[in-house]
Amino acid sequence: MNQIHPLAVVDPEAKLGDNNIIGPFCVINKDVVIGDNNKFLNNVTIHDGARIGSNNEFFPGASIATKPQDLKFQGEITTAEIGDNNSIRENVTISRGTASKGKTVVGNGNLLMENMHVAHDCVIGNGCIIGNSTKFAGEVVVHDFAIISAEVLVHQFNNIGGYVMIQGGTRTSQDVPPYAMAGKEPIHFAGINLIGLRRRGFSNETIEKIHDAYRIIYARGILKDGIAEARAKYPDCKEVEYICSFFENSKRGVIR
Length: 256
Known about the structure:
Elements: E1 3-4, E2 9-10, E3 15-16, E4 21-22, E5 27-28, E6 33-34, E7 39-40, E8 45-46, E9 50-52, E10 57-58, E11 63-66, E12 79-82, E13 87-88, E14 93-95, E15 103-106, E16 111-112, E17 117-118, E18 123-124, E19 129-130, E20 135-136, E21 141-142, E22 147-148, E23 153-154, E24 159-160, E25 165-166, E26 171-172, E27 180-183, E28 188-192, H1 194-199, H2 204-219, H3 223-233, H4 238-249
Parallel strand pairs: 1-4, 2-5, 3-6, 4-7, 5-8, 6-9, 7-10, 8-11, 9-12, 10-13, 11-14, 12-15, 13-16, 14-17, 15-18, 16-19, 17-20, 18-21, 19-22, 20-23, 21-24, 22-25, 23-26, 25-27
Antiparallel strand pairs: 27-28
Helix pairs in contact: 2-3, 3-4
């Protein structure tokens, strides 16, 4: 049975699972689907198009599936999809998609800290930590287990690799490759995320291969040559292949 505070407003057509707690002054709109065991603290707004899994916690002021801040949006039916086991802190805003992709996605087990913004058509993976007041423009992709510190500004269409650590207060208009540390102004590659990789259980042998792959790639004047050399040296290492593929598929260029 759901616990709905008498001062909350829940549209009768919204689809709710079981054992959800909906606090005072929350508003849940019509075209909304919610799973089980979610907590909506006071003053949370769930707009049309929200698709929410289970075991999430939404803190006061969170606004989910907001209308995209994109002048090309013409009212098309789109969604914002939130997975399971996420912590969505105070005043976080997540826009729903546009005709470009049709949906904004936040995966599982993420921590989105206070006052951060996820714009239309973004895709955030699993196990990410996103700091206070960080802002993602439209169609940003964040891979699994990325850590992005406070007040980071990410340009639209950027790709943030898995297991990265990005320094607070930075701005990036280029892609940040996996396993990297990135910071300073202008932002640049600052080595591999050694502590983060160890905490995630990467072996010393794998970490050394990742480190060497970056040494090879960035040492070459032509990235294509460095990618080919790193791939040839470590043909059976999936982490090196991930790095090489990330560089090859980048459309905005990768930080150096």
